[in-house]
């Protein structure tokens, strides 16, 4: 470590956000441009260089965190970039989108604020692009083997890049008109500007990866024909089958899934639309679901000029500190977190009746009611106890012209016919079944990411992509030197 006393003398300081009144008027990233680099070396100095760094275990990618913290503290950015990219294909994505389980596992976090690992990672990635430390790495020779990757989210892109660099000819099939999966149309621009995605796509094109957009395998291209055409197929379609809310009034107009709403606002940012047809402008918005997708809807609705926005979370409001009995270190704790979107809602008072910022905790939706034209006008809710049972006498109604359901995803979408055409076996949770080597029941077909694991974090998605690439490389050539950071059965640390 560069400063053995850094963790004792330097307080935690995070990348500052732009003022709320400024940032809600645009779709740019919420952070102050250029404000990270002046503070990041001292923040990296807070790393204790632990004998047993649990941040490694908390991150499925196995990021070499103490190593690149030390290099950043010494301002050796090239070496830091090399160590960071040794385990992570897309650190500029994870540095912006990951909830940082590595920080929960930081040894310093036992009794102090953790090292700002996520910010250090983002600073290295951005500096690497600025300084030209991330050139394309095309293979020296081709293997003569071909691989189709279905899906261009973080899993599909990581698998494709690893396999391309190993010398295989890789084509990525994406059903949307642009590459990126949920990073393209599910993640709002204010969380990650799409220029970061475009840079990586350009790098992959220069390395030799081929992209086939607007092509839904199973609908536009027969899945069996694709299997016959390529030596191996990787299914990385994600878990896009959204969960429903079967309550009275669900059929009313004005109630949409989050992933019907968010892509349209992203298309406005892409220049495809002038205004979203589901814009929240002037409407009373209620978001059902307390997770990250709900927060993305919240920040989007605020920027669109909603009259009010309230987010419902069925869980009780967590405390500000880790509960050592239920969430002991180094597990990822359930604590009260204030995202940029929640900070905006709190300062702008978008939901005056909410418990905190824009959220109503321990709230369950009972029904919707509408007007004579079939449009939703109210959401009726009730408070629930720790067993999610209604608390008598707590029912009330919220005005609602637009309701967004952000209840998570249950598994891969089956509408395109991919699963049925290939005859893929499914697990008990509705995800694609696979063995210890990521192989499905169909020879030469592998499954990775949320489609097989279930809904998870971006770091797990990238780790799955890297690991399935090693499995495919071994299948095609008999051995592999590609890293495999996780197995299909690995899970996050829990009590």
TrEMBL record:
Question: Which pathway?
Answer: Amino-acid biosynthesis
Give start and end of each 4Fe-4S ferredoxin-type domain: 36-69
Question: What InterPro entries has UniProt attached to this entry?
Answer: 4Fe4S_Fe-S-bd, DPD_II, FAD/NAD-bd_sf, FAD/NAD-binding_dom, Glut_synth_ssu1, Glutamate_Synthase, Helical_ferredxn
Swiss-Prot/TrEMBL keywords: Amino-acid biosynthesis, Glutamate biosynthesis, Oxidoreductase
The record's annotation in Gene3D superfamilies points to: Alpha-helical ferredoxin, FAD/NAD(P)-binding domain
Keyword Iron in the entry? The reply is no
Q: Which domain of life is it from?
A: Bacteria
User: Is S-adenosyl-L-methionine one of the keywords UniProt gives this record?
Assistant: no
Q: Which NCBIfam families match?
A: GOGAT_sm_gam (TIGR01317)
PANTHER family recorded: GLUTAMATE SYNTHASE [NADPH] SMALL CHAIN
This protein is called what? Glutamate synthase subunit beta
What is the species of this protein? Streptomyces lavenduligriseus
């Amino acid at each position: 470590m560069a400063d053995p006393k850094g963790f004792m003398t330097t307080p935690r300081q995070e990348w500052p956000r732009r003022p709320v009144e400024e940032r809600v008027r645009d779709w740019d990233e919420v952070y102050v441009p250029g404000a990270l680099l002046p503070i990041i070396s001292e923040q990296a100095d807070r790393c204790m260089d632990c004998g047993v760094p649990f941040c490694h275990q908390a991150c499925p990618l196995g990021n070499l965190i103490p190593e690149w913290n030390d290099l950043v503290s010494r301002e050796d950015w090239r070496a830091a970039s090399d160590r960071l990219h040794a385990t992570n294909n897309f650190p500029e994505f994870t540095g912006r989108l990951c909830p940082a389980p590595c920080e929960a596992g930081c040894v310093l976090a036992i009794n102090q604020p953790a090292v700002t690992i996520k910010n250090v990672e983002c600073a290295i990635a951005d500096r690497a692009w600025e300084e030209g430390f991330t050139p394309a790495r095309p293979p020296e020779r081709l293997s003569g083997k071909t691989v189709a990757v279905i899906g261009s989210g973080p899993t599909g892109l990581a698998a494709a890049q690893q396999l391309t660099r190993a010398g295989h000819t890789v084509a990525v099939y994406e059903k949307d008109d642009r590459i990126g999966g949920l990073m393209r149309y599910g993640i709002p621009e204010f969380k990650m500007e799409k220029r970061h995605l475009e840079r990586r796509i350009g790098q992959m094109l220069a390395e030799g990866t081929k992209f086939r957009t607007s092509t839904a395998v199973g609908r536009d291209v027969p899945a069996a024909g694709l299997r016959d055409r390529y030596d191996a197929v990787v299914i990385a379609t994600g878990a896009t089958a959204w969960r429903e809310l079967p309550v009275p009034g669900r059929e009313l107009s004005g109630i949409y899934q989050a992933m019907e709403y968010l892509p349209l606002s992203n298309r406005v940012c892409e220049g495809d639309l002038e205004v979203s047809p589901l814009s929240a402008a002037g409407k009373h918005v209620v978001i059902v679901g307390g997770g990250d997708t709900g927060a993305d809807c919240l920040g989007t609705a605020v920027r669109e000029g909603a009259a009010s926005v309230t987010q419902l979370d069925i869980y009780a409001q967590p405390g500000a500190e880790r509960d050592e009995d239920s969430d002991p270190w180094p597990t990822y704790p359930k604590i009260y977190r204030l995202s940029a979107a929640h900070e905006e809602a709190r300062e702008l008072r978008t939901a005056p009746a909410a418990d905190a910022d824009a959220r109503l905790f321990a709230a369950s939706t009972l029904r919707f009611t509408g007007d004579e034209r079939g449009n939703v006008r109210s959401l009726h809710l009730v408070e629930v106890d720790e067993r999610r049972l209604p608390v008598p006498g707590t029912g009330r109604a919220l005005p609602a012209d637009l309701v967004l359901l952000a209840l998570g995803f249950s598994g891969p979408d089956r509408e395109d016919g991919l699963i049925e055409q290939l005859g893929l076996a499914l697990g008990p949770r509705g995800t694609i079944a696979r063995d210890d080597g990521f192989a499905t029941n169909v020879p030469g077909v592998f499954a990775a990411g949320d489609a097989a694991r279930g809904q998870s974090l971006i770091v797990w998605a990238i780790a799955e992509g890297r690991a399935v690439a090693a499995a495919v490389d071994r299948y095609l050539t008999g051995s592999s030197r590609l890293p495999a950071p996780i197995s299909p059965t690995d899970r996050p640390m829990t009590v």
